[in-house]
Amino acid sequence: MESANNNLKQEAHVLIFPSPVQGHINTMLRLAYALSFSSGVRISFLNTDHNHRLLSFSSPSQYSRFSLRSNFRFLSIPDGLPDDKPRSTLYLTELFDSLKTRSVDSFRALLLAGGNRDTDGWPPVTCVIVDGQMPYFMDAAQELGIPAILFRTINAYSLWVYLQIPQMMEADELPFPADADLDVPIKSVPAMEGFLRRRDLPKMCRGATKADNEKLQLLASNSASATRSKGLILDTSNSLEAPILSKIRSLFPNTYAIGPINALVESITSSSVSANLFAEDRSALSWLDSQPDRSVVYVSFGSIALLMEEEFMEFWNGLVNSGHRFLWVVRPDLVANATVTVKLAELEERVRIVAWAPQEEVLRHRSVGCFITHCGWNSTVEGMAAGVPMVCFPWLWEQFVISRLVGEVWKVGLDMKDMCRRDVVESMVRAAMEGEKAEELRQVAAEMAVEIGRSVGEGGDSRLDYERLVRDILSLSLSASGE
Length: 483
Description:
Protein name: Glycosyltransferase
EC number: 2.4.1.-
Pfam families: UDPGT
Family: Belongs to the UDP-glycosyltransferase family.
Keywords: Glycosyltransferase, Transferase
Largest sheet: 7 strands, parallel
Radius of gyration: 22 Å
């Protein structure tokens, strides 16, 4: 009996807490699933109460799949907002303010309660992995003596741009007037001088006011908070971002580049993982089954991006005018402050509109020829892992950097930022689907997918970093438990 208790005492118990938005939950749940296959590791996955309810209702099959694992459990804490308060994109600032001011005490209490063994025999939390958007939870854990690792779900290039905001300000490259030439190069960001422009920086950099300057400084400060952690996890690989990873490691030596995580999880567990806060509807796959190979344009702007009504109609008309089939994921809240209707009667054979689709499966479907995306990192790496060319229309923050990388550095797609016109949409769809340019994009995208597969496979750089992460988690847990 004493021997069994000693073994339990030495077991690592990792609590993982993502930012309460779809893409972050998905990415960190994938990491949690991979870690649950590691010997001697238990996983508590923490959501807000609101998202925990949505996840269990909207993704019952995935929820059950996780719950059946003996070393995995879901936990939740309040986000501090009333139940009837919206958590959609327009209210995200209020949500994060509430988390910072009202939820840290609940988080701390949960960790303290884990100081004694639960009745189900779970050991105390010995390590936390916290979303880098919420460094205040990392600080709360470490104040209790629990080692914390930050997970940034953005890519390395974007993180590097955020870290260089003070240097750009010092070099007078930030801020710049709203009417400035957006194609002027940015020269003060090392290793990105050859392709970074004003146009590729977060949109709030344009015509920034004094208040915006403070927000930019806060963005840089949050990015630098990894120096207070025991390590930094990035959903990327050397095959994608080697030049910048070396820069980041000069600031954060204990950086784990373990991505793309969707491909890593499949390599380790032979299965894919996704969790959704929206009701599942797999009818899109049946429709794709009836389409010819590489004939469909898949359109999805993620879980939080918003389009203005005019932008939606420009996309709609450009897609229709291209003459190609398309599958478009249109969330109920995709169009800001408006409800749009489109006439499908004459287009039913080549158009499908859905509120949700299983994205990884869609991207790997033989009928999908290109992906129109907002360039959130999660969507971008899913597209690259599937070998699908992209057309990028970024909406927020790091997406502007990523779209430039897709078009200019990795050359696996086309960047249409700041050009939301129906003629541009039509021409870019045609370029990605027809002729020599399309063949060139397909070849580069296919080669990228192969390289990603190597990085997450046995002996690949991402797999080796992941294995180092597991070893370090076990080591940190032994130290935290006093062994």
